[in-house]
Design goal:
The complex is a heterodimer. Chain A starts with 20 loop residues before the first strand and ends with a strand. Chain A is elongated and about 120 Å long. In chain A, strands 1, 2, 4, 5, 6 and 9 form a six-stranded antiparallel sheet that branches. Chain A has a six-stranded mixed sheet with strand order 21-31-30-24-27-26, with no helix packed on it. In chain A, strands 7-8-3-10-11 form a five-stranded antiparallel sheet, with no helix packed on it. In chain A, a hairpin with a 2-residue loop joins strand 10 and strand 11. Helices cover 0% and strands 40% of the residues of chain A. In chain A, 32% of the residues are buried. About 10% of the residues of chain A have low confidence. Chain A is mostly beta strands. Chain B has a nine-stranded mixed sheet with strand order 12-15-10-9-18-17-11-14-13, with no helix packed on it. Chain B is built from no helices and 33 strands. By secondary structure, chain B is mainly beta. The chains are: A mainly beta, B mainly beta. At the A-B interface, strand 22, strand 35 and strand 36 of A face strand 1, strand 5, strand 6, strand 7 and strand 8 of B.
Chain lengths: 488, 412
């Protein structure tokens, strides 16, 4: 008769156990952020236990056996449950609440067995679990059996593939405007509605198909329902094939988003894949939601007419610097960052020794922002500071260094060109003729009278008071006109 | 025709601190100044025969910085027709401004009410290190009310320390209240001054208004000797609403096409009214018609509507309705109403006169009376002439002229 030493039950066993058969694992709903039921089938190996007797195959009744489902670390990251909601069924019998023991970290729990667990197939069903927030590549479930503090079996189950959301709360869509091939400044609009919770650490990534090269002209012009989470504002980062949007507040399910990106050059011809992928990614770049959208192009972009309908200089008399105005009514948008170049008639010379900060370009109407204005020789250059409103004509004013060279001269040589990304996108097919008027003397027919008349003619000035620098003042111009009728 | 005035580059491109104000005693009509890049174009005057010298006054231009004794560049003033100079002076010599004034210490600013939209009396206590000159030698005090205060009328009530000046009255010019006093020179050692200005309405908005500025001015030399600076002493007041807000036209200005009635303008409450309120509109111009008059918001109602009409020859500028509210509880439930800006426009919108369509004329018979109507009745009278096209003599009209009287929506 051989005897076996009893296992040192008071000393914890270091090994994490081995043996047992992991048979199957399934989820009723394998989508991310879903409420799911986890079903695990397993067969523990028989264990032997010596206690003053021969090897026993079965656990004595009354022994507490702890099945640790994924001890310590190993519910795959992202699977969550609430102790108050979870229900556990072992072999068709519900496990009483007082037999479920939850670890402080709540990512595993143990089932205390009331009766012996045989070395045959068993099925564990765990209801009211939640799948992770985003899909990720791998993770395992573990089922371990223990007796006292010793691990006996360890069975590994490969996590079923998780499916990310697809923005399907309402039908996602996209549009391209204008949809012409080679259009240098198209607006791409993407409409998606979240069907999963998107945390504030997430990012939206729009991936353009091969054939697109985005550059620094591209920028997000609409981010509807994306609100900034810090004072920096929602960030829009453009790379050659992707646009990434970050730094927004968390979005609940059902948030209708509109993301519009302006300044994209449409490809010159059809591309093999027209799939634009819109994805929401978590902080670790796992996918929360993704959808593939497509659109098509038709027609080809052509250089269009700026349709300059007004061209004026005020005054037309070559006596003082003239303010220059031209009005363009192209009926199409002029993009932000486009450069308008006006070349004056060759008879002009912008001849000035004064400094450039005296010049000013002002836009009114379909555009209000000029971000840069400079003059060189007979060429005036202005940069559009915003994309214009196509349905409103734009008055471009230039205040600066312009004086008619001669009186009563017809000038026809004005040209206006608009370039974008270095290429011409529009030009004025015609420019109104501007004719100069008579030269008149500086002092003309008008006599200026002061309320307080000063000593010499050269001291004539208008009256102003109070006279301190920086103060708001009245400026009074008193004069006698030779004209007898003032026409309204 | 229009006037073109150009300021030299020493001036700010916007020229004015706030909105341009252009006035002239010789020109008629509401003058409008449009500023662009140191240039102002003056329009809005009516056709007239020129018989005397004309003065154009621009108020609110900010003087340029003083650069030692260097004059600014030259000014231009021209009478223009389209792009042509009719006549002008293109070499008006530049000016040399004075140095900025010294500072006055504000020790107290108060208003008898801290509620918005009430008439109030304002008290300013201050002390100027720089002496205030004798009024006979040009000494004058004035106070700038910031643009939060919309002052369309002021009856001149004011007061100051008796030993400064026994008699005093004040007058208003574009939010600047001038003090007419008879004072000897007042130095700092003689004590601080307390100036009270009565009967000016508090701002229409709540919150902190911009700063008051008090000036010690030498009108003979045209030099401000000293003034308060908001960066050194705060001189602003804060106001709150004393009740629930009632909005007129969503607090937006109303554009009035002169000669016609406007569309209905809505006065709205967010929740049903807890009182029966009578609203009496008052403009400073008796030719402006408001109908119905006065307006009543019944208990439980949330809105009431009215229309405005102005004669064709009214000045094309803004007129403000000041609303009087009666019928409210003793401690007001509702705040006074914000003033409503009526912007007089001519040729802004076209008014429609339409005739009722008829399906047929019974052969040998007469149609039902047909209405000619307009959604915007005329201010005085509107004469409509009817005729049948193509001179068809088979059908005739009972009337070829219809007259709309003031306020008529339809005539048949």
């Amino acid at each position: 008769m051989t005897s076996q030493a009893s296992p040192a039950l008071s000393t914890p066993v270091v090994s994490t156990g081995s043996g047992g058969t992991a048979s199957s694992i399934s989820l009723t709903n394998s989508s991310v952020q879903a409420n799911t039921t986890l079903t695990i089938s397993f067969t523990p190996s028989a264990i032997s236990l010596a206690s003053n007797s021969s090897i026993q195959i079965e656990y004595p009744k009354g022994t507490k056996i702890l099945i640790k489902i994924a001890p310590l670390t190993l519910f795959p990251i992202g699977f969550t449950f609430l102790p108050s909601q979870i229900t556990v069924t072992l072999d068709g019998t519900a496990v009483a609440a007082n037999k479920l023991h939850f670890a402080a970290a709540f990512n595993f729990f143990t089932i205390e067995l009331a009766s012996a667990l045989s070395g045959t197939a068993h099925t564990l069903v765990i209801d009211q679990m939640s799948t992770p927030n985003a899909s990720f590549a791998s993770g395992n479930f573990y089922v371990r059996t223990t007796q006292a503090s010793a691990y006996i079996n360890a069975m590994t189950f490969t996590m079923p593939t998780l499916t990310p959301g697809d923005f399907s709360t309402t039908t996602p869509s996209m549009s391209i405007y204008p949809d012409e091939y080679s259009h240098p400044y198209a607006l791409y609009t993407f409409n998606v509605t979240t069907s999963k919770y998107i945390p504030s650490t997430a990012s939206f990534v729009i991936t353009f198909p091969a054939g697109y090269t985005l550059d620094s002209y591209a920028d997000c012009t609409k981010l509807i329902n994306l609100n900034a989470s810090t004072s920096t504002g929602v960030l829009c980062t453009v790379s050659a094939s992707t646009v990434t949007i970050t730094n927004f507040k968390a979005l609940p399910i059902g948030t209708a988003l509109e993301i519009a990106i302006f300044g994209i050059t449409n490809p010159a011809s059809s591309i093999s894949s027209s799939s634009f992928v819109v994805s929401a990614l978590d902080a670790s770049s796992n996918t929360i939601e993704t959808v593939s959208l497509s659109s098509s192009l038709t027609g080809t972009f052509a250089v269009f007419d700026l349709n300059v309908i007004v061209g004026r200089m005020t005054p037309r008399n070559p006596v003082v610097d003239s303010a220059f105005l031209f009005t363009a009514d192209p009926g199409l948008q002029l993009p932000k960052d486009a450069v308008m170049t006006v070349t004056f008639d060759s008879d002009f010379s912008i001849l000035y020794s004064e400094t450039v900060d005296l010049i000013e370009c002002i836009a009114q109407g379909g555009l209000y922002v000029i971000s840069d204005c400079s003059v060189s020789g007979v060429v005036l250059t202005m940069t559009m500071g915003a994309t214009s409103n196509a349905s409103v004509p734009i008055d471009f004013h230039y205040f600066g260094l312009l004086r008619f060279p001669n009186s009563n001269e017809v000038l026809t040589g004005f040209t206006v060109t608009l370039t974008y990304k270095g290429s011409t996108i529009a030009q004025a097919s015609t420019f109104p003729t501007i004719t100069s008027a008579d030269t008149i003397s500086k002092y003309s027919l008008m006599r200026l009278m002061l309320i307080h008349i000063l000593a010499t003619l050269s001291d004539i000035s208008m009256d102003f008071y109070p006279r301190n620098e920086g103060e708001k003042a009245n400026y009074l111009f008193t004069f006698t006109l030779a004209t007898t009728t003032l026409d309204a | 025709m229009y006037f073109l005035i150009r300021f030299p580059s020493d001036y700010d491109p916007q020229l004015f601190k706030y909105d341009p104000v252009v006035e002239s005693s010789q020109l008629t009509g509401a003058l409008v100044g449009t500023v662009m890049s140191r240039q102002i174009i003056i329009t809005g005057f009516k056709t007239m025969t020129v018989t005397e010298p004309i003065t154009l006054r621009l108020w609110g231009v900010v003087n340029p910085n003083k650069v030692d004794i260097t004059r600014t560049g030259t000014f231009t003033l021209a009478l223009m027709q389209d792009d042509d100079v009719i006549e002008g002076n293109f070499a008006i010599p530049g000016i040399i401004p004075y140095l900025a004034p010294e500072s006055i210490q504000f020790s107290a600013v108060s208003s008898t009410t801290s509620y918005s939209r009430y008439s109030s009396d304002y008290t300013f206590t201050f002390s100027s290190e720089k002496a205030i000159p004798d009024s006979g030698l040009g000494g004058q005090l004035f106070v700038d009310f910031p643009p939060d205060y919309l002052i369309d009328s002021y009856d001149g009530g004011c007061d100051i320390n008796e030993d400064f000046s026994f008699f005093v009255n004040c007058y208003l010019d574009n939010n600047r209240v001038f003090v007419n006093a008879s004072n000897s020179q007042w130095t700092e050692t003689m004590g601080s001054l307390t100036l009270e200005i009565d009967g000016i309405r508090t701002p229409d908005d709540d919150g902190e208004a911009l700063n008051f500025i008090i000036f010690n001015y030498d009108s003979s030399d045209k030099r401000i000797l000293s003034r308060t600076y908001s960066t050194l002493n705060s001189g602003s007041l804060t106001y709150t609403y004393d009740g629930i807000l009632i909005s007129v036209n969503n607090d937006e200005p109303v554009d009035v096409e002169v000669g016609t009635y406007t569309d209905e303008i809505v006065i709205k409450l967010v929740n049903a009214s807890e009182q029966t309120l009578t609203l009496t509109p008052n403009t400073l111009n008796s030719t402006i018609t408001i109908t119905p008059f006065p307006l009543t918001i019944q208990l439980g109602e949330k809105e009431v509507r009215f229309r405005v009409a102005a004669p064709r020859d009214i000045l094309l500028k803004s007129f403000y309705i000041t609303w009087s509210k009666t019928g409210d509880s003793l401690v007001p439930t509702y705040a006074n109403l914000r003033r409503t800006n009526l912007r007089m426009r001519s040729g802004y919108v076209s008014r429609v006169v339409a005739y009722e369509s008829m399906e047929y004329i019974p052969a040998g018979g007469i149609t039902f009376p047909l209405l000619v109507s307009t959604p915007n009745p005329p201010y005085t009278e509107l004469l409509v002439t009817l005729s049948i096209l193509n001179g068809d003599t088979l059908a005739t009209l009972s009337k070829t002229q219809l007259t709309f009287a003031k306020g008529d929506f339809s005539v048949n």
